[in-house]
Design a protein that fits this description.
The complex is a heterodimer of chains A (461) and B (161).
Chain A lengths: L2 H5 L5 H17 L6 H13 L6 H12 L5 H30 L17 H17 L6 H14 L6 H15 L12 H14 L11 E17 L2 E12 L6 E10 L10 H4 L5 H7 L1 E10 L4 E2 L6 E6 L2 H8 L20 E6 L2 E4 L3 E5 L2 E5 L12 H5 L1 E11 L2 E13 L2 E6 L10 H24 L3
Parallel strand pairs in A: 3-5, 10-12
Antiparallel strand pairs in A: 1-2, 1-4, 2-3, 4-6, 7-11, 8-9, 9-10, 11-12, 12-13
Chain B lengths: L25 E5 L2 E7 L7 E7 L5 E5 L12 H14 L1 H8 L9 H7 L9 H14 L24
Antiparallel strand pairs in B: 1-2, 2-3, 3-4
Classes of the chains: A alpha+beta (461), B alpha+beta (161).
Amino acid sequence: MRADLLADPVDGLDEALAAVAAFDGVLAGGLLRPQAAHVAGLSALADAVAGSPLAARVAEAAAKSAAGAAGEEHFLALAAARIALLGSVHDALTVRLDEATGRVRADAPVLAPAEPHAANLLAAARAWLSDLARAGWQGIDHDLVSGAAQVVSAMLPDLGLRRLAVLLDGFAAELGASCPGAALERIPLRRWADLWSRAMLLTQPGAAGFPASGTATGRLLPLGVELNEHATAVHAQVHAVFEPADGSGARLVRAGAAVPKPDTVVGAGVWQLLRPHLSLLGAVSEGRAMELTGMPITAEGDLVWNDGHARLGEPAEPFATARVALPVASAAATAPLDRHPVRIAEPVFLEGYTISTGEALTFTIAGFPIRVDTSRVPEAGPLTPEAVAASSACIGLVRWDDGEFTVQPLAVETMVKKKVTAIHAGAWAGGTADKQGVKAEKAATEAVAVLRERAGRLLRK
Amino acid sequence: MPAWETTSAARVLEPARPRKLAKVPFVELADGRVQGVVSSGSDIARVYVSSVAAGSFAVSCSTNNNRPCGGGGHCKHISGMIQEAVLQYGQERVARYLRLEVPSGSSVMQELYKVRTPASDRAAAASVFSRFLRHLAYLELSAGTAPLPEMQWFPPVRAVA
């Protein structure tokens, strides 16, 4: 990987992010009675998309908002403008990253809206998000935030609404813990504006669709697993190289499973919630490939997993996959509405770096340091920041946040008792004999059992 | 190091810490209260619904059938719930949520004992119990394998080395 390219400035990036930041400041104070400084933030956003098809609608929305007279459609236009700007940032960063990795990327898929679905719930979510925008982060209180609970509860059982429901659930929990907004000492402006605008977009009927556009038949070689979670949801995503049986070129793909959970099921205990739905997690722990037959896949390279289309294959060591198969695999493009820098998670194989453990852990590759984000390494696995800091090779995801590219380690090779040993963040995904892992799994099993017993007695009445 | 204001993946909340749920199956910091459900020691079908309000420290404790708890004031259910809240969220976060000053060496419950308990907030119980039922409903939700790109905003939380 050419780390020098990741350190180079990207043209136009600062200007785009300045417009985003200006608008993010507006949401802190809210749009009920915008102050003069906020009017400037609205104009900055409108000006930034003035050359795009959104121009007229965003200019109108900015004007209405500045006058404190904005309606839901105006908030939606502002959210769309912000998403478009960050989409352009995503695109520029992805081009840069592909130059650095030498990876070939497919053209962006054409947007195929999903079937409109549950319009009344989407409208209720939009109404709540609009109230949030009016109040601003500094104006939130418990009454306002708790308004999300009913919408989320109604949405969660419907898999077609899961994306928005899980997002709103995590977002509302953060807001709830931050009430009253007037007393907030610091505000995660970028993050909350991200979550707000993304949720606003997903309230558009059809926006949350992921039609599987094809099927995958061939060999799947896992590289590693990332785990994402908030208090009441957990998500595991496997990154892998797919070698089609028809001999066409190898591709990078993902496969994941997600499930809502009680907030007291934590740590390594979350794997057992996901394991029954994704046999791939077992293959990852065993270091095996999987053979796919007719597995549904989206144009973005996401396998929509169904155990019926997969069977366990031959042993396949992820570091061998990373050394041999990854360099020749091509990547899929992100769907238009999903483009955002947070989506950048590009699998890479790194070796021959020097490690610095000063203020931050960095790998220096050919003279250029890249920060290693060990805060993303889940505690639900055997990989530790210490092992990363003593590694000689690394399978990771290149990410971008707040102006810099970083590497999230998925696995490393390091010396254990004078032998090169691979340690994988997702090693416990399929099950573990590790003492701590077993303890955490048992605790989670007990927690679920207690809650089920309570539910059995109390929900009947 | 990334700045809080301009980081998409800023970690706002720490995950709950693991704890045994047998005595206090549910506790949360929500709706301006530390609130939870405490299993009765004598009747397996009964739970106590307990809460302490942030700021006013008003307490409420009654059974799920809306009978007031006989323990009065800071009963054992309230203290048990607070103890588990501290286990789950950490003392600092519970104290901050309650807007309660807890000097070092003291505990949330010790400081609450010092406060003269205002008239109890009876209306809280019904809403806390319904929050508990909502919480239990998470057990019944199915998993999905469709892509969930929104979870990219929710990386795991780990102390940076």
